[in-house]
Design goal:
Elements (H helix, E strand, L loop, with lengths): L2 E4 L3 E7 L24 E7 L1 H11 L5 E3 L1 E2 L4 H9 L8 E2 L6 E7 L5 E6 L11 H8 L4 E4 L4 H14 L3 E4 L9 H8 L4 E5 H11 L3 H5 L4 E5 L5 E5 L2 E6 L13 H15 L3 H16 L11 H12 L1 H7 L5
Parallel strand pairs: 1-4, 1-9, 2-7, 5-6, 9-10, 10-11, 11-12
Antiparallel strand pairs: 2-3, 7-8, 12-13, 13-14
Helix pairs in contact: 1-8, 5-6, 8-9, 9-10, 10-11
Length: about 325
């Protein structure tokens, strides 16, 4: 499969707060919050959901097409992605804006408070998927990830009008989207990705219940944190996949992106949905053990050893020949 991933390209500024956010919140003053957290560490990392997903897919050898907008400062980041198996030729470069920024603080309980500066991402709405498809000889699936909201709507409508299968993945943008926009973005999707909290928010904002949403998408993929992932399909039993044991829980940033990278790579390989979800959970585990969203290294023998321990010999035998 030829898979394109649309979504943000950003630089992450990741900070660590040694206390708990919950201890700093006063219940009867939540309408007038004014807080500043003294952090212990700052790490500046490459990020953005589109780039993170593509990096993971590149590690798995599936050479995804990254579709997004970056700034004049993108040259070094582009070289990094190119070296790690990502096709960056369809990235739009702004002539006036710098690459987007994500600033996030994580507390001792791994809760997070983050802010996102759009920057060049606002120009993603100028990208036409037809030109991407023409360049690579056609697209089998487009993941529409968190991006400029107008770009997300345009890409979705273009996929529908051109008959290109697409996956809806609102992620961070769901908080600012209206119910009308969410209905447009998910209707007819082959896959709908979300975590448990986002799942409830989608249902609340659209006014559609779980069954109604499932009837409008082919597959609903819900990540469950440490409990793994659940895949729902109309008229079929759900597929539930657990997570491998973690060696350490270092930083949760980018874990969801890594799951999507593994899952999409599994689809590209043509393995079952269960197997694709297992690959996604294994890759997500590597990311939670690492500080930063693109700082992990996929070592083939190590990956298969842990994959075998988590999912068994038969599952590993199916995945191993496909790893680079």
């Amino acid at each position: 499969m030829r898979i394109a991933v649309t979504g943000s390209i950003a630089t992450d500024h990741l900070m660590t707060f040694p206390g708990r956010f919950a201890d700093q919140l006063v219940a009867d003053q939540l309408h007038t919050v004014s807080l500043s957290f003294l952090v212990d560490a700052l790490d500046v990392r490459r990020g953005g959901v589109g780039a993170n997903i593509c990096f993971g897919m590149g590690q798995l050898g599936t050479r995804p097409v990254l579709v997004g907008a970056a700034g004049r400062d993108f040259d070094e980041y582009r070289a990094w992605l190119d070296r790690h198996g990502v096709d960056t030729s369809s990235v739009h470069i702004s002539e006036v804006l710098n690459t987007a920024r994500f600033v996030c603080t994580t507390d001792a309980d791994h809760n997070q408070i983050g802010s996102f500066y759009t920057g060049a991402m606002s120009e993603a709405r100028q990208i036409e998927l037809k030109s991407v498809a023409d360049r690579v000889g056609g697209l089998d699936l487009v993941l529409i990830g968190a991006d400029d909201p107008e770009a997300m709507l345009r890409h979705t409508e273009e996929c529908r009008s051109r008959g290109i299968p697409f996956a809806a993945d609102f992620s961070q943008q769901i908080a600012r989207m209206s119910g009308d926009d969410i209905r447009i973005l998910l209707d007819g999707a082959t896959y709908l990705f979300s975590n448990e909290y986002e799942k409830g928010l989608i249902e609340s904002k659209t006014g559609w219940n779980e069954a109604e949403i499932l009837g409008r998408v082919g597959h609903r993929v819900t990540t469950l944190g440490s409990r793994g992932v659940r895949i729902d399909r109309v008229g079929e039993a759900p597929i539930v996949v657990g997570c491998p044991d973690e060696d350490a829980k270092v930083d949760p940033t980018g874990v969801g992106d890594a799951f999507r990278a593994g899952f999409l790579s599994g689809l590209s390989w043509g393995v079952s949905l269960e197997r694709a979800a297992q690959v996604g959970c294994m890759l997500a585990t590597l990311v939670i053990e690492t500080l930063g969203t693109q700082e992990y290294t996929l070592r083939r023998a190590h990956f298969i050893e842990r994959f075998t321990k988590a999912y068994g010999d038969d599952a590993a035998a199916e995945v191993q020949p496909r790893l680079p």
